[in-house]
Model the fold of this input.
Amino acid sequence: MAHAHHHHHDADTYFTDQLCMVGLSGAFGVICLTLFYGSATAVEGQAPPMLNLLLGRQFHLMIGLSGVFLLGLAIIRAVSLWKEAAPAKSTASLPLVDAPHSHQHDHDHAHDHHHHEGCGHDHSHDHADHSHEHHHAHDHDHSHEDHEHGWAPWRYVVILVPIMLFLLGVPNKPPRAAESNDKEARVAQAEREAKETARMIALDDWSRLGLFAALANENAVGESTPIGFKKLVESIDDPAEQAHLEGKTVELRGQYSPDPRDPRFFSLVRFRVQCCPGDAVDKRISVFSREPITSVNRDAWVKVVGKVEYARRGDATLIRLATPGPSAVTPCNPDINPYLQ
Amino acid sequence: MMLRDAPAAERRNFRVDYETLLLIFTAIIYEALPFVVLGVVLAGILEEFVPQQALVRVIPKNELLAVALGAVLGLVFPMCECGIVVVMRRLLRKGLPLGVCVSYMLAGPIINVVVMLSTYAAFNTPDRTLSIFGGPVNVVALRIGFAFIIAINTGLLVGWLQRRHGIANLLAPVVMRGLDDQMQKTSPDAAGPRDWARTLKNISTTALNDFVEIMAFLILGAALASGGRLILQQSNLQNAIESHPAIAILMMMGIAVLFSLCSEADAFVAANFATYWPPASKLAFLVLGPMLDLKLYVMYTRVFRPRLIATIISAVVIQVLLLSLLAHRFEPEITQFGLGTQSSTSAKSAP
Done:
């Protein structure tokens, strides 16, 4: 009779173990469903929902289904655990019965002490006598026998980490872009300006006025059409698109990435993601502004209105937007799909 | 007015700070999660419905054929590398020989339809600088071919190891215990008419046990992988890389292990590495990544003993290195031979 509680220890950790398992799996199931719901119901103008930050669109449905499965499995297991637990309480008061049976997990009892270090049970009892009662109220499922019967709480602590992160609402920002460092653009612009100055010096006053007017006209920004970032990037390899877009005034949205060496130069950055931010590649469109931009924060989402300009350099085609100044660079809301796919 | 040197949309990586680290860490976990769930559900079903030792009757007796079959099983059971360890463990319990299991585990994440398509898509760009080995079809063929060879060789090696040392010395104790009990108990179909409540209960128990176990190791692996990114600085190794292709190959292999990318996405990362990386190094990245990375290593420790892990790792690493060096040596020949052409008209005409 004195050894009956030995099996109780096993039962205690077994149930705690199983409950943790059910709880954590269920928690992940709920998280997946919440992520999916947040992404499915997002509306333009809000901050990007977490799932959009984490995964490409092709995974969203899979996350939803995973949530359904996990929650379903957790519920099924919880129900069966409940049924297992109920009879155990009622047979606890039964008289001892010495039943011969084969233990496939007999060897576990020899080192049960190690497993119970974490719990505050009293271990001061004699283990020498193993002829003790087993109430098989919970039938040990042999399907999980290739797992230790031990109580390994570290696993649960580790699994709690992403659950905690989710509850904290992180992550909530897309990757940060490296700063711009477009030496070619700066050099090219310097050369251009030198040429312009040289031209102007050579002219008389009236012609100079005329030239100013012509330049102002060129640099003025009229009606703009919004253009997709991806479309603009892809136009680099598409001569037909280039002919179509050259000189057009467009409105482009992206993250602001300044060039610390010259405040007139910056890039608009967006990340192209295939599966997750781990494989993100940054795509940039260079922008030149006649007047320096000083009051925009790095990585902020901005809307830029400017003219599309292409240039050839050897085998490569280069693109940039030319914009007049801070008036054409305005903050905007991030896309609810922060990445390009 | 023509601009002379306006820049193109450059390809650069983002700067890795702690917030981005957290983003990558979390993303790896949730990207893998559906495949883990798929794997554990599949494992639970396999456990419950497939009779003991059934697979022994199905696979060929010839070891080479069996291992080769294992390598292409991914075409039938496509699975991300995260879920594959779970499924492989169950197949092992159902009588699939260890060598065949290892072969499936290594090649499964590469020789499957999804990965083949994504690899093709990643290297099929009009931008000629991204194309290697003469076109995306070649890249896919090389990736699959190398994976096949490596999986077979490693599978055969593991089979030999098993005959020499016995399976008990190769598998982790928990797995061995499970195997022993498996052998002793009677087949579940002999238990009488199927009780659906009991079936569901068994499946859910198996699945949730596996889920919790795998997730713990996956999360650790994700932490290692994202931390590794922080450490990996963009140093100026361009000269060393260009002049020593072997170093480039080894470095790319190291990066593959560190990044622990999903095999469906790694092609895009490889394709976008700068052009001074020799094509053979990108191929090494693509072949080694799905077979061995931090995520996988942590999961291996749960199933295999150190001797077997060391064997698998050395066999895979050495073969990837050798095959990549070969690919580098024969790159011009491969590029010309070309099983398929690029999508746009290529400037690479006759030599």
